[in-house]
Amino acid sequence: MPFPVKKKIEVFDKRPQLDKESFNKGIPLQATAEQMRAIILYAPTLQLVGSIDNTNSDADTTWSRSVTTGFTFTQSLTIGVETALEVNVEFVKASMKISTSMTFSSQWARSVTETMQFSVPAGKKTFMYQGYIWSEIAIYENSEYKWSNEVARCLSNVMATSREPLATG
């Protein structure tokens, strides 16, 4: 059974009502004769990955942190498209807003960890954030759309720093 024609993927502001329209805006996963699946992306935000308070120091401080990108689903995924899909996304938390585009291809089906290095000048402090998007697998089977109930995060390579911690909530 072929996957429905894809126009573009979309990152929803919140978990959408699951129907044909929202399903078709997801990232297609490998289909079987019985069912089609797609990753639905929603509620992009920023998570704190570290902070350095260097306000009581006369020396610059450098810190390395391993950062993982990709999906955090417990099951193995196979993205069901041969080409890359691009989506515009806006990560918003408190007063910080970062607009970017992300490209999804088969390599997003696995997590990748890389080391990022951050430097903070003497007398300063910084808070480091990573952008992520809530992700959930939607299923189309027996002429019905339903959620798989496996929720994960899509950890992006979008990183941002702030002088002050961003409000939670």
Characterization of the model:
- The protein is an all-beta fold and about 170 residues long.
- The protein has one domain (about 10-160).
- The protein is about 5% helix and about 55% strand.
- Strands 1, 2, 3, 4, 7, 8 and 9 form a 7-stranded mixed sheet that branches.
- The longest helix has 5 residues, at about 20-25.
- The radius of gyration is 19 Å and the shape is elongated.
- The relative contact order is 0.27.
- The model is unreliable at about 1-5 (pLDDT under 50).
Fold blueprint:
Blueprint: E1 11-12, H1 20-24, E2 27-28, E3 35-53, E4 61-71, E5 85-93, E6 96-104, E7 112-120, E8 125-141, E9 144-162
Parallel strand pairs: 1-3
Antiparallel strand pairs: 2-3, 3-8, 4-7, 4-9, 5-6, 8-9
Helix content: under 10%
- Return Rg in Å: 19 Å
The coarse overall form would be elongated
How much strand content do the residues show?
A: over 45%
- Given helix and strand content, the structural type is mainly beta
The arrangement of helices and strands along the chain is EHEEEEEEEE
Distance between the termini: 42 Å
What is the domain total for the residues? Answer: 1
Uncertain regions spanning at least 5 consecutive residues:
1-6
The largest β sheet comes out as: 7 strands, mixed
Could you give the count of β-strands?
A: 9
| Average pLDDT taken over every residue | 83
- Per DSSP, the total helix count is 1
